[in-house]
Amino acid sequence: MDEETRSFLADCAAVALRAYESGVGVGGVCPPAPFTTYEVAGASTQGTPPSDDGDSSAPVVEERALVGRATLGSSKECVVVAVKGTDTASNWLSNADAEVDGSGAHRGFARANEKLVARGLLEDPLLRDAEEIVAVGHSKGGAQATLLARDLLKSGHRVRLVTFGAPRPGGPALAAELDDFRRRGALRV
């Protein structure tokens, strides 16, 4: 692997990890970028140990995606969409909802994506005007990033996909649909 690819992957990993946190900025990515955060709150954490601020009824963030501009590796600035992976019990239930839906996608991942899209993710002005979009995610977030990348490709965007430890996002029909996408440089790590 050449140095440029290694640098690009390291920056993508930093963005993917940041999706687990609040979207205040992405450290380690040059330049540090503010990201717009799209979140879907789940049930409260009632009955769980209190957080650092003592609140045990704060809502849990079930789904989160970040959208912002960043320079990944030494490439030119691009728009990045980073999707949070599995970190709640509800996420694990979503992972287990593995029936394939009418679009060929894993039903749990597709439903999780629908929640983010309902929050306006695909209408983000940065995405609308982007020359190039990099979709990135870890675990369930990688599967969701794949589905988002498919939607962005269908709307005419140029998209690169980088996933870390992501499960397959659907069945054979979806795999066939994504074959050309994979040939154009999707990276599964």
Task: Explain what this protein looks like in three dimensions.
By secondary structure, this protein is of the alpha/beta class. Helix content is 35%, strand content 23%. It contains 6 helices and 6 strands; from the N terminus they run αβββαααβαβαβ. A 6-stranded mixed beta sheet has the order 1-2-3-4-5-6, sandwiched between helices. A hairpin with a 5-residue loop joins β2 and β3. α2 packs across α3 and α3 crosses α5. The longest helix has 16 residues. It is globular and about 40 Å long. About 12% of the residues have low confidence.
Question: Which features would summarize this protein structure in a list?
Answer:
6-stranded mixed beta sheet
Q: Overall 3D geometry?
A: globular
Contiguous uncertain segments of 5+ residues = 23-32, 44-56
Distance between the termini: 12 Å
User: What is the tally of beta strands?
Assistant: 6
* N-to-C series of helices and strands: HEEEHHHEHEHE
Largest sheet: 6 strands, mixed
**Rg result:** 16 Å
How many helices? The count is 6
| Average residue-wise pLDDT | 77
Structural class: alpha/beta
- Strand fraction equals 15-25%
Strand order of the largest sheet: 1-2-3-4-5-6
Q: What is the percent of helical residues? A: 25-40%
